[in-house]
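Sequence in, structure out.
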Amino acid sequence: MRIKILLALTAVAAGLSACATVNRLDAGGDVHDLLVAIRDNDRATFEAHVDRRALKAQIEARLMDEARQRGGQSSGVMALAALAAGPLADAAGEALIRPETFHAAANYYGYTPDRPIPGRVAIAGALRPVGDGRVCAAKKDGPCLLTFTQEGATWRLTSFDAEAANLHLKR
């Protein structure tokens, strides 16, 4: 009886693992396409693999966090930050969410003009599940720089760690 239960649990675990591998392989193709688009400044492909709304929301949240840290819980500062964060995030998104901004991340993953492009399987091996059906691109023990979410049949960039990727503006 115990052996049957153990075999059943093993089969379930193997099935779940296979699903995660398939998701990572699917995501690997789209991540590959995005990183090539970044390297080649291909705006059309870049836009197809980026969720601007999610990235702008991340920028807006970061602006609010900065305001909270600098202004404490002052209601005046927070009210001003709440009013300004949306338009500032829109402007920052237009200025920053483009292939040129992400060159440092592409270089980090080996997408430089002088090197062969890693394939879909190599990219899939660098993807880490992070919950909620999302995956992040990370080197072996490195930080998650880029996080992707499946939207329809396409995995799209939905967040990035600007500090880890050294993509932030100098203060």
